[in-house]
Amino acid sequence: MATPLTGSEVAIVGLAGRFPGAQDLEGFWRNVCDGVEAIRSYSTEELLASGAEPELVRHPRFVPAAARLENVEGFDAAFFGYTPREAELMDPQHRLFLECAWEVLESSGHGGQGDPLLVGVFAGQALSTYLLVNLLGNSAVRRSTDPLQLNLGNSGSFLTTRVSYKLDLKGPSFLVESACSTSLVAVHVASQSLLNGECDLALAGGVSINLTQQHGYLPSEGGILSPDGRCRPFDASARGIVFGSGVGAVALRRLEDALADGDPIYAILLGSAVNNDGALRGGYTAPSVEGQAEVISEALANANVAPETISYIETHGTGTALGDPIEVHALNTAFGGQDLPRQSCILGALKANIGHLDAAAGVCGLIKASLALHHRQLPPHPLYEEPNPHIPWEEGPFYVNTDLMDWKAGASPRRAGVSSFGMGGTNAHVILEEAPKRSPSDPSRALQLLPLSAATPTALDALTERLASFLHKHAEIPLADVAYTLQVGRRALEYRRVLVCGSTTDAEEGLTGASSTRRLLSGSTVATGAPVVFLFPGQGAQHPAMGAGLYESEPVFREYVDACARALQPHLGLDLRELLRAPQDSTAQARLEQTRLAQAALFTVEYALARLWMSWGIEPEAMMGHSIGEYVAACLSGVLSLDDALALVAARGSLMQELPPGAMLSVAMDEAGLRPLLGPRLAIAAINAPSLCVVSGPPEDVRSLQEELTRNGTACRVLHTAHAFHSPMVEPILERFAQIVRKVKLETPRLPYVSNLTGQWITPEQARNPQYWVDHLRQCVRFAPGLETLGRKPGRVLLEVGPGRTLSTLARRMPVPSGPWTVVTSMRHPDELIPDAQVLHEALGSLWLAGASVNWKGYHGNARRHRVALPTYPFERQRYWISPDVQAQGVPGGETPAELGQPPATTATTGMPSPDAARHPRPRLRNAFVAPRDEQEHMVARVFEEVLGIEAVGIHDNFFELGGHSLLATAVVGRLRDGSGVSIPLQLLFEGPTVAQVAERLGGLSWRPPNEDPERDALLLMLAELIRLETPSAP
Asked: Where is the Ketosynthase family 3 (KS3) domain positioned along the sequence (predicted)?
């Protein structure tokens, strides 16, 4: 920026919308740059085929043109947790704005779960023609739908609060309404809320879906509607507007916050203003030069910029004989036109491209201007041929361009103004400036983790394809920023996928399945914050260079390895890092097999790795070690300080190394079958699985047992150890070790872990007793019983925190009563030729797939990363639509919402809740479908189906798991009361929410159809007609 920040700047960090001729921002900007006119004209054949009245179509003044929004019937109801019937009863304006609200937060990089920002929502909508024409025009809806439900689903009062509820946003949330200027006023209000500290991020916008002019319209003589179906702002042939449908939303933040968080910034909102014309105009609906000039002047003053620094104005630009000259006159007045160079500021008008979007017009103009600043291009003005002679062009700097132009830099930053003027006189103007140049991101890891998630498998596939296509087109975006945005800026949904990759090309190939080296891992979970258990392996897992790659790439791991190595050096007489970073050869292996070095090295690597995991938010709910691994658990639990733990581990290893040589044998046999085969000098050192034990003792005794087992066909294997751990051979050192332990302060565990001695949870008394640690050295490691203890709680995720996969293998073989668990390995096996970083990142991805919570900011540490605009969620829209009883043939009455060229819909378009209404498939439930068995259950199931809009409800289906809530429960109880003639308490449904339970409570009551209410029907129809007749057209 040319000047220092004042603290009053607001950054536009996210954009989203649906527009005539474009379903997304990319298509919208392409159309704008190409000068595309999205107002479509229809042939007589198309109109007649769609059901329009022939007399109307052939009327000499009828204009067969409209700026339609495609697929307004579509909505991803399941994604937002709505039942099909709720979706059908909801104004498509609410549905589309809800989708765009989700998209704009994702676009900003702040759509993640647990984002700490306080988010406000400020928006408005046009009149609900869906309510007036479709819902109140359907007799079944009028007869059987609670008016409160109609109000909640269609009134503008609930537009923003619906978003706040569904997206869990806790900042201010309220409707803004000022006719055509609604959405730009919402932007002004949102900006003020940000600057006043009421919220940290503000979502602002508007939506307008006009179902009454889907085929065309009849303009009145001297009215504002264009008689030829074209909108030509500032042109000599301009004769009026064409209404369109659309939705737009922007995400706003205080500029200093956006810069600090690395948000994507499309433009800066330097200042804004809102006023009203008062009585200084020709009539209530007429515009005012004075009012418009004043609001522009005030916005310039609030932005603290000179008019001559503005080189583009996105105007209100209605293309009317009265509106255009007044608007340019007001601009000339505000800019002090006579003093500025001619043709130094371009005028644009989005209405020439997509028509007048009413409550969404202002924000869509803001989106266009923001994209122009972002791309540094000035789009052409379509349909402009000759300047309007009634506009005082010579009095100011303004002109209209007809070609796409590069927006050249001047002495000041590129700046633009955006105007929006509402019928009723409320005017809004904002001043924009180009975004400051982004500082580069910090250097990143060699490998990146890309997490993707969606609500369904098919949506996940679509999202994967979208991201691959995006990366192919945008290789210039740092992959680390892409990964960061996916990690912190998206919510973790049920179906998940991760990819570990090293470059954009690598990522693209991995996402498309074209890579032979990158694995695309997938999974599903409904868990949030899945409990993770750390497993720490014991001696035998060590190998040279274990963790060497992590030492180089992970600062936290390196920090704790360094700390342990320094503390151990006086005990070991060497720097342990020499071994940990040594080449993986026989010399290093021989040194590391020395017990005193092996145990110290294992503790160091496992402790450092655990600390790394914890810095990434993977906090253990519980832990269990194997032999020496329990010391890591005890240290992390607070039983031992780090210095004391290292001293004990060093002493333990040194004492054991003094012992005579011993041997250990792994045997595929359970404890009961193995114990009778053991001689007096042999002992069972470990029970690793129900049928896998380890025997320990003198080498000759172990060799004899091996020969005997081999003759009997029992699988067994000698382990690579120098001593007979957990056997009578260690008894000579027990007292000396006990003396050392007694000098150490032992504390009560703060984190639960499983004891090797008992296979049960460690008790405070055990942990604080020095004799426990002596017995731990001598007695059997009961690892399999410990796994049984862990398996009693469902949903646990086991993470092996140490080298290799020994414990992971044992855990996977363990039958778990609570169901299969997820087991993850952190480090590679010594024979694997996979980089340490890849194994670790795939482990992190696997934990996320299983539902573990990850602290992604902790993962990135102090590195500066940028959020980038990535492809947003691929909603899976289905048609949810209720049509009037009789498709009226008139236009502009608009009782014809069907797609042009398509027959009236016969699925999901009938009224609610007639018994033959088309319904949507039963959702996935935990219970199997069981059909109703008698008339009572059929009756209750039918009511569930009608209220929820679902087909084939089974007797064990839970009303609330099907998508029901308290308001719909009231509807169910009302239907059952009307059908049975018996007053049924609402509590009945809460106490027994399945079909079978409700039917049982109803007993032997018979069903009868609900009574009709002709008087209520007539009142609702009268209300709809009065509102329709009194609704004014927009300017």
From this structure: 7-434
In angstroms, rounded to a whole number, what is the distance separating the alpha carbons of residues 756 and 11? 57
Return the SS3 of 209: coil
Give CA–CA dist 71/309, Å, rounded.
Answer: 41
Contact 354, 67 (CB under 8 A): yes
**Residue 77: pLDDT over 50:** yes
Q: Which of 284, 404, 257, 411 is nearest to 341 (CA)?
A: 411
Q: Residue 233: phi, psi to the nearest 5?
A: -60, 135
**d(Cα 338, Cα 786) in Å, to the nearest integer?**
87
- How does pLDDT run across 508-525, given as a tens digit for each residue? 999 998 776 788 999 999
What beta strand segments (E) does 67-137 contain? Answer: 74-75, 119-125
The enclosing domain of 997 has a CATH number of 1.10.1200.10
User: Which pLDDT score is estimated for 175?
Assistant: 97
Q: Are 917 and 910 in contact (CB under 8 A)?
A: yes
Q: From CA 968, how far away is CA 971, in angstroms rounded?
A: 5
Q: Tokens 């995720």 belong to which residue?
A: 797
Least Cα distance to 424 among 318, 241, 286 occurs for 286
Phi, psi of 800 (to 5 degrees): -80, 120
H or E stretch including 825? Answer: strand 822-825
End-to-end CA distance of the chain: 37
Residue 91 lies in a domain: yes
CA distances to 528, 658, 665, 692, 711 from 702, in Å: 48, 20, 7, 16, 14
Sequence letter at residue 927? N
- Name the nearest CA neighbour of 89 among 877, 907, 911, 895: 911
pLDDT at 326: 96
Q: What is the pLDDT of residue 895?
A: 31
Statement to judge: residues 297 and 411 lie in one domain: yes
DSSP string, 449-498: EEEEEESSHHHHHHHHHHHHHHHHH-TTS-HHHHHHHHHHSS---SEEEE
| Cα atoms in the 13 Å half-sphere on the side-chain side of 157 | 6
Helix (H, G, I), strand (E, B) or coil at 881: coil
Q: What is the DSSP code (8-state) at residue 133?
A: I
Domain ranges, residue 488: 448-524
- Domain membership flag for residue 847: no
Helix runs in 712-782, H state only: 734-742, 764-768, 770-778
- State how many domains the chain has: 5
> 739: which residues sit within 8 A by CB, 6+ positions away?
none
Same-domain pairing of 167 and 197: yes
Residues 710 and 747 reside in one and the same domain: no
For residue 736, the number of C-alpha atoms closer than 13 Å in the C-beta half-sphere is 12
Averaged over 596-609, what is the pLDDT? 97
Q: Which residues are catalytic?
A: 180, 316, 356, 627
d(CA 254, CA 678): 74
Cis peptide leading into 913, omega within 30 of 0? yes
Q: What are the φ and ψ backbone dihedral angles of 303, each rounded to 5 degrees?
A: -80, -15
CATH number of the domain at 698, please.
Answer: 3.30.70.250
The DSSP secondary-structure symbol of 951 reads S
| 148 shares its domain with 251 | yes
Are 1010 and 976 a contacting pair, CB within 8 Å? no
**Residue 542, SS3 per DSSP:** coil
Domain final position from 401, 434, 467: 434
CA–CA distance from 383 to each of 206, 311, 621, 633, 948 (Å)?
26, 21, 66, 74, 48
Rg (CA), the chain: 36
Residue 280 sits at the vertex; the CA angle it makes with 276 and 282, to the nearest 5 degrees, is 110
Q: Name the pTM for this structure.
A: 0.89
User: What are the C-alpha distances in Å from 319 to residues 229, 238, 356, 745?
Assistant: 12, 5, 10, 84
CB-hemisphere CA count at 13 Å for 594?
Answer: 15
